Amino acid sequence: MIDCENYIYTQLRNAVKAEYPDADFSSVYVNEPMSALHVSVEMRSNSEAWNTIDSSGKEVCADMMIEVNVYSTKPNTAKTEVKGVIQIISNTMKTMNFVRVFCSPVPNLDRGDRSAKSNNNSGAVYRLLAQFEGTADETHFYRR
After folding, report:
1. Among the listed residues 3, 2, 49, the one whose alpha carbon sits nearest the alpha carbon of residue 27
2. Which of the listed CATH numbers 3.30.420, 3.30.70, 3.30.9, 1.10.490 matches domain 5-142?
3. Which contiguous run of DSSP H or E holds residue 83?
4. What is the pLDDT of residue 109?
5. What is the pTM of this model?
């Protein structure tokens, strides 16, 4: 299986940290981030690219979907901060020939009185979910 998740994660982490050094990163989905700004980057699908299958018996290219969740609990600036991070991520993904296929706010309904409430005294969390699709071989990313 062609797996570029660690490379993509590192590229996104470095790009965001250059602008938002306090951002917390994870390579798995986190239901309740413990920091004021949290980013999770996860490969959600990875399938062999049908149009690259040949008689070699080896996987030539993989189609993959990367899912990014960005959360902020900062009072009064959460939405602006999250959109700024998503913009950095979108630009970085474009440099790797990935296409954003989805980006939407997601309500966080299961908050109770835990981390976000204790961080900003309101319980408010702003979250955007974005998904990116692309194709890669062992060394290159290709535009679809």
Report:
1. 3
2. 3.30.70
3. helix 78-95
4. 53
5. 0.85
